[in-house]
TrEMBL record:
Cellular component aspect of the GO annotation: cytoplasm
The protein, known as: 3-dehydroquinate synthase
Species, as recorded: Moraxella cuniculi
Species classification: Bacteria, Pseudomonadati, Pseudomonadota, Gammaproteobacteria, Moraxellales
Cofactor note: Binds 1 divalent metal cation per subunit. Can use either Co(2+) or Zn(2+).
Presence of the UniProt keyword Lyase in the record: yes
Binding site for NAD(+): 75-80, 109-113, 133-134, 146, 155, 173-176
Length: 363
């Protein structure tokens, strides 16, 4: 099947994810046109992705009669900040964009998060579309409406929930995606298996060679399954008041690495990979899973060229950074842990000494 469509159901509105896996040239612009509001379109991309895809997308939209402008930002997690958001606002205001406009996020998770936040806040909310070009963005950040920017004291601390009108994921973009970025995306793929479906983990193990070879058909199946898992959770808990917190498996630990090491020095997926190992070690320390499960998790992460050992971070420093995490409630650090592979839960019921041991053990 060259294209699959998945519908995400939310309280605000339902929207489709188009997953294109065919090697044949497809008119992707025609997929977007029905979801564009008004005639003014701003495509926001970065300096890496824009030279590859911006011109073709812009020309295609212009051929349909839209007035298209662009805003090209620097590439990197370190630019996911208020300065970049202001650059998007400037582009909109300088060209007199009205409320009935559409923003298109063309890039990875950083671009998608920032464009979504700009769309949520410009004129108190305008239309936007996600065209994710990285694996991480396709399977995770482009779906579900979590948008935002980083603050020097914490990752994704400023943002809003704002759902896109549609998401278009084209497996062909992986041909230009660097291997390190592709590996980082696999961390989020593996996350779904660990928190929701042990059968999916076996599927990833069985199909590792085809995935690493970037087989379009296999990747299409993989992206579809991940989006289906996330759509299921988002439909049940759009604003992360309950079950959606499970999607943060490995993230509380991983955000410590990203913040401490400096945004962009560790890719998000790399930090999450190590964070998942730390969460698995914590789960084993509490007697929830076996050491063999931890070994299996490390093995599949290594299989997809992801790190499994944390950089040296002082334990008290790490705990301090965890204290700024969004999942802290009533002063207690909440962790997503595993009862088994494929079964995750959120808890604050653990001894701080156990967490300290894990942080020290993986340093």
């Amino acid at each position: 099947m060259s294209e699959q469509t998945l519908i995400v159901n939310t309280q605000s509105h339902d929207y489709p994810i188009f997953i294109q896996s065919s090697a044949d040239k497809v008119d992707l612009v025609s997929r977007l046109v029905p979801f564009i509001k008004g005639t003014q379109v701003l495509i926001v991309s970065n300096e890496t992705v824009a030279p590859l895809y911006l011109s073709e997308l812009a020309q295609g939209l212009k051929s349909h009669g839209f007035m298209v402008h662009d805003c090209v930002l620097p590439d990197g997690e370190q630019f996911k900040n208020q300065h970049s958001i202001t650059a998007i606002y400037d582009a909109l205001l300088e060209r007199h964009f009205a409320r009935d406009c559409t923003l298109i996020a063309l890039g990875g998770g950083v671009i998608g998060d920032m464009v979504g936040f700009a769309a949520a806040s410009f004129m108190r909310g305008v239309n936007f579309i996600q065209v994710p070009t990285t694996l991480l963005a396709q399977v995770d950040s482009s779906v579900g409406g979590k948008t935002g920017i980083n603050h020097p004291r914490g990752k994704n601390m400023i943002g809003a929930f704002w759902q896109p009108q549609c998401v278009l994921a084209d497996m062909a973009t992986f041909r230009t995606l660097p291997d390190r970025e592709f590996a980082a995306g696999m961390a989020e793929v593996i996350k779904y298996a660990l928190i929701m479906d042990d059968g999916f983990l076996a599927w990833l193990e069985d199909n590792a060679e085809a995935i690493r070879a970037k087989d379009g058909a296999v990747l299409g199946q993989m992206v579809y399954r991940c989006c289906a898992y996330k759509a299921q959770i988002v439909a049940a808990d759009e604003r992360e008041s309950g079950v959606r917190a499970l999607l943060n498996f490995g993230h509380t630990f991983g955000h410590v690495i990203e913040t401490h090491q400096g945004y962009g020095n560790w890719l998000h997926g790399e930090a999450v990979a190590v964070g998942m190992v730390q969460a698995a070690l914590m789960s084993a320390k509490l007697g929830l899973i076996d050491h063999a499960d931890v070994v299996r998790i490390k093995r599949i992460l290594t299989l997809f060229n992801l790190p499994t050992v944390a950089p040296a971070i002082d334990t008290q420093t790490a705990l301090g950074l965890m204290g700024h995490d969004k999942k802290v409630q009533q002063g207690k650090i909440r962790l997503v842990l595993l009862k088994a592979i494929g079964k995750a839960f959120v808890t604050a019921d653990f001894e701080l000494s156990a967490l300290e041991e894990v942080l020290a053990e993986t340093a």
